[in-house]
Amino acid sequence: MTMQNQPTRSVYRTNRAKLLTADAAPVSGITVQLASPEVIEMCGAAGLDFVWIDAEHGSFDLQTAVEMFRAADAQGITPLFRVPSLDAASIMRALDGGAMGVIVPNVSSAEQARAAVSFARYRADGVPGLRGACPSTRAARYLTDDWDGFVRWSNGHTTVWALIETLAGVENIDAILAVDGLDAIALGPFDLSHELGLRGQPFHPEVTGLLDRVVERANHHRVPVVASLFAAHPDGLAAERDHWLKRGVRIFSVGSDRALLSRSLRERAAVLAAAPGHAR
After folding, report:
1. 159 in helix, strand or coil?
2. Domain 14-273 adopts which CATH fold?
3. Residue ranges of domains in the chain
4. Is 157 a catalytic residue?
5. pTM of the model
6. How far apart are CA 114 and CA 118, in angstroms?
7. Which tens digits make up the pLDDT trace of 137-156?
8. Residue in 17, 13, 14 with CA at minimum distance from that of residue 25
């Protein structure tokens, strides 16, 4: 019995980030840096659309990341993988392991954006992809019945985001946005502020001015933008959200697991430290 004649088992999953983006509805996710499938499950239970699994700043390997992808699939939340760098092997292995998209840091030129897209796509139907073909991967359910159908689905539903976090990326933004197959750009205000010598000041007017220009150009090219929200409390978070909504942004990362846990622990510790008679 040939592979095409075997009973069909669905390998197709829903990329909530990509579908909701197409509908121009706000999409929300969170950056996950802790090596914990349980954190992924919590994010899904909270009703978020995607998890931004961060292998650039997180301390985990691909095997752990795959367990996090499994947790995301079980919860119906879309797993996106921030690769450590623009590297073909990192992108292909993450996608084969079940990531539904990649986030590529430090994209500063059209050539880099084009490479990222090609590493995430199979060569098919005129798409000049460079992704290696193997039907026995986890993404293809370990020996997909319909390889051609899987290739077409993967090419149409795999997300590629480019992080714009350098001055060169800002300067070359029009060329980057013109790259065919780039699904969105993500703003990196913290790294950009660092490069500008404004360390730790992502809301400095010089930083926000550059990012406003990036967003304006993205709107012109009709490429979605991903903005990270940094505020510690709901009112501030809503203000940041509204700032970007007015500029046409519809995809948001609402924080990181490390920051949220650390902040909550400090707030609780501070309450007890302020209690009468407390002594260290």
Report:
1. strand
2. TIM Barrel (3.20.20)
3. 14-273
4. no
5. 0.91
6. 6
7. 999 989 877 899 999 999 99
8. 17
